[in-house]
Design brief:
This protein has 798 residues and is of the alpha/beta class. Among the domains are: 323-461, Rossmann fold, CATH 3.40.50; 643-788, Luciferase, Domain 3 (Luciferase, domain 3), CATH 2.30.38. It has 25 helices and 27 strands. The strands form 7 sheets. It has a 9-stranded mixed β-sheet with strand order 3-2-13-12-14-15-16-17-20, sandwiched between helices. The chain is extended.
């Protein structure tokens, strides 16, 4: 210090501080700490010995000082007593540290490994004039930092004469280790020395600060070892979290998916353009009342004891038979109650056109039928739904959305069904999640009011108004309501009567759900028009006794039966040992899901087993339907003018390209489908392309079946956008000219028109899976599995 001309001799740093500094340097040399962490900890250690600098609050600076003798002015600082050294001091002496560093360098030279490049601190590039002592810039706020807004200034260091002794003390206290480390890092280099005393005070401060920086960055090996984990962490932090905005708009051709080029050998349609297929005219037939309600009134007054519907329990026993007289009287009482006995604030709760929910289990077709016709007589719109199982059932939430969109405020049910519904603490039916607020009305006989003798309903069921709403669940799980007008309802009943040849007093065994689809159209609506007797087989009975429907056909000498392919499979599994059954009375066995490719296996197997028990091959009549178009096509027996049934063996490879190619059954890569009969009377059918403008397909091309008829649905309730796309399609020719003067309804069925104008269905639009330019269908997967082991698979996977 005397060589520099310093007025006072600076006291060395305390031994414990020098120990900590030596430990830090050792950790830095071994790569256990980063350069930035080293600088932060080192600055924290030295912060207590920095003299008062202008621009820093003395009270804040005092927080980092150790207790000791009071300090005087910078011109005459007191000497601090050095503490006696200990054995710990010997372990961290400068010469010991130098030997450790040299040994580490020699070890790396033996490995011949490149040393990691040293990361330089920001201080290296900072200006000397803006330097701030370490007590205010390095410690974090969590560690009691003095780094607060407005507390630090960039005053030039030349104006503070007290800075120079502090810098001299720091440099002298660590000069040995710094020089040794610098010499070890740079072979042949010279150690760092203190600045000359001949320099001016400002220059001395600048030179001292440079010396401090030299100690900070040169006091350890320049090529210091850095931990690989720390280096990896720093590289990760340097990497931007997201690319710049402009990079989002730059095409990276290396990452673009390769556009699949069309196979030049792929099959392509080669046939001519198809035309509209017209169904047989809808004849008036015998004289009938002008509407379905008028028909009900006729049968209820002229044939009151004629059986209308028989309900069975889970043991197969007939629990109740509803006559046409009882159906008419009970429906009339319900209509009168709905219109005159339900009030809200002295106003009728319901008005014509309001929607009402029908909540009935699958085991109670009698009360459902009374509720349905009672709503029609009261000019209300019934919305049949499933019974909710729990308050938060996911399926019932979607139904609740449908009820809310329809504005439903009243639900009809039975006393037994209401007792099984979840209850709130008040004892009333609980509010289901997603459902609108509902009032519940039990329609058992004791809860209905008898109408006056001169009261008659004013129902008009022949116009375009909505008759009922049938729910449909899409593959995404959403629920929509398909509206069916009074005119469509009447036309559907007449078309089914003509296509199936229904006549009065016939018996129909119905295994399907009577609340929707074919179970509703045949078992609740068309049956009343023809005064038929329907035997309803509940689903619970089918699970207990799969042969029960065949037994009821034999017992009631049913002329027609309405089933699905699953019911035929279950019957095959349970028919062993049953030798007293006969199906000779059947003239039509309607397979409601005949459009599924796997239905042909159940039909063939069922015929093989029961042909010896009176079942004739021409009796099996598959049909195709959809919620939007109702019944699309149905096979007719020969006595009704139907052509012989046909099968088509198609190449799966061709179908994947939407092309029809006939193949042989010997190959495994084929799909065998059966026809679903002819189009419905009074309907016009065409096949259009699946994507884009609905152009007509070619004769050997698979497309979507579209129907134009007065017996289809009219809209999705409250959804005008998708209604126009589905219910108001306008197919065009290749030249762009419309093919018909009326719009068509898309069915969602994929197929083609085969020989004898028979309709073939190969899949559904909801099950379509597109991979590149090839199309596959979920129904094909099921059909393939059934072809491998049909009986065993269906039984276990039903």
């Amino acid at each position: 210090m005397a060589d520099r001309g310093c007025p006072l001799e600076a006291a060395p740093l305390p031994a414990e501080v020098r120990e900590s500094l030596a430990e830090l340097e050792l950790e830095l040399s071994e790569g256990d700490i980063t350069q930035k962490g080293y600088e932060k900890k080192r600055a924290k250690l030295l912060a207590r010995y920095i003299p008062l600098i202008q621009g820093i609050d003395p009270s804040l600076q005092a927080e980092n000082r150790i207790p000791g003798p009071s300090q005087t002015t910078a011109a005459a600082p007191k000497q601090q007593k050095s503490r006696p050294t200990t054995s710990r001091d010997e372990r961290f002496r400068s010469d010991v540290h130098t030997e450790a560093v040299q040994a580490a360098l020699a070890k790396y030279k033996e490995r011949k490994m490149p040393m990691p490049s040293k990361r330089r601190s920001v201080l290296v590039h900072s200006s000397v004039e803006t330097y701030t002592p370490p007590d205010t810039s390095s410690a974090s706020e969590d560690e009691g930092s003095l780094r607060r807004p407005g507390r630090l200034t960039s005053t030039p260091l030349q104006s503070h004469s007290s800075v120079e002794p502090w810098l001299d003390r720091v440099i002298q206290g660590s000069s040995t280790s710094s020089s040794a480390s610098s010499t070890s890092s740079h072979p042949g280099g010279r150690p760092t020395t203190a600045p000359s005393a001949a320099a001016t005070p400002g220059a001395a401060a600048t030179t001292a600060l440079a010396g401090l920086e030299a100690h900070t960055h040169i006091g350890v090996p320049v090529n210091s070892r850095v931990s690989s984990k720390i280096q990896q962490l720093l590289n990760t932090l340097k990497r931007p979290k997201r690319p710049p905005l402009k990079e989002f708009f730059v095409d990276d051709f290396e990452e673009l998916l390769e556009v699949q080029q069309p196979d030049p050998n792929q099959p392509k349609p080669e046939g001519s353009e198809t035309s509209v297929l017209r169904g047989e005219p809808l004849t008036a037939g015998v004289l009938r009342p002008p509407s379905l309600l008028a028909t009900l009134q006729r049968w209820g007054t002229t044939q009151p004891k004629s059986p209308c519907l028989t309900a069975l329990d889970t043991t197969g026993k007939a629990t109740y038979t509803l006559t046409y007289g009882k159906l008419w009287s009970r429906s009339l009482k319900l209509a009168y109650t709905l219109l005159n006995k339900l009030t809200s604030k002295n106003e009728p709760l319901l008005k014509p056109g309001d929607r009402v929910a029908l909540v009935f289990p699958n085991s109670d077709p009698v009360m459902f039928m009374v509720a349905f016709y009672g709503c029609l007589l009261a000019e209300l719109v019934p919305v049949p739904i499933e019974v909710p199982l729990t308050r938060k059932d996911a399926g019932s939430q979607q139904v609740g959305f449908l009820l809310g969109s329809c504005g439903v405020s009243l639900a009809l049910t039975t006393d037994a069904c209401q007792k099984g519904l979840p209850k709130a603490q008040t004892g009333e039916v609980a509010a289901f999640k997603g459902w609108p607020p509902l009032s519940w009305l039990v329609i058992d006989g004791k809860h209905l009011a008898k109408p006056p003798k001169d009261w008659h309903p004013l129902a008009q069921d022949t116009g375009t108004g909505t008759a009922y709403i049938e729910y449909k669940t899409s593959k995404e799980g959403s629920t929509v309501g398909v509206t069916v007008s009074h005119a469509s309802l009447l036309a559907q009943c007449r078309a089914l009567t003509q296509a199936c040849g229904y006549s009065e007093a016939e018996t129909l065994t119905n295994v399907l759900d009577f609340k929707r689809d074919a179970g509703l159209w045949h078992g609740v609506l068309t049956s009343v028009m023809n005064r038929m007797h329907v035997v309803s087989v509940p689903y619970a009975l089918m699970k207990a006794n799969p042969l029960s429907w065949i037994q009821k056909v034999c017992f009631y000498k049913a002329r027609a039966a309405l089933v699905k392919s699953r019911d035929m499979h279950w019957s095959l599994l349970a028919q062993r040992g049953q030798r007293d059954v006969s199906l000779s009375s059947l003239r039509m066995l309607i397979v409601a899901d005949g459009a599924n490719p796997w239905s042909i296996s159940s039909c063939d197997a069922f015929l093989n087993v029961f042909q010896s028990r009176g079942l004739r091959p021409e009796v099996i009549c598959p049909c195709a339907s959809s919620p939007e178009a109702l019944t699309v096509a149905i096979r007719r027996p020969p006595d009704l003018g139907g052509p012989p049934p046909r099968k088509a063996v198609l190449s799966m490879n061709g179908l994947s390209y939407g092309v029809i190619r006939v193949d042989t059954e010997e190959k495994l890569s084929v799909l065998t489908v059966q026809d679903v009969g002819q189009v419905m009377p009074g309907a016009n059918v065409c096949v259009v392309k699946l994507e884009g403008t609905p152009y007509l397909c070619k004769t050997d091309e698979v497309g979507e079946i579209c129907v134009s008829s007065s017996a289809t649905g009219t809209a999705y309730y409250g959804l005008l956008g998708i209604t126009k796309n589905v219910f108001e399609a306008v197919p065009v020719t290749t030249g762009g000219a419309p093919i018909f003067d009326r719009p068509f309804t898309r069915t969602g069925l994929l197929g083609f028109i085969g020989p004898d104008n028979l309709v073939f269905i190969v899949g559904k639009l909801d099950g379509l899976m597109v991979t590149g330019v090839r199309r596959h269908n979920a129904d094909d997967v099921v059909a393939t599995a059934l072809a491998v082991e049909p009986m065993k698979f269906v039984y276990r996977g039903r």
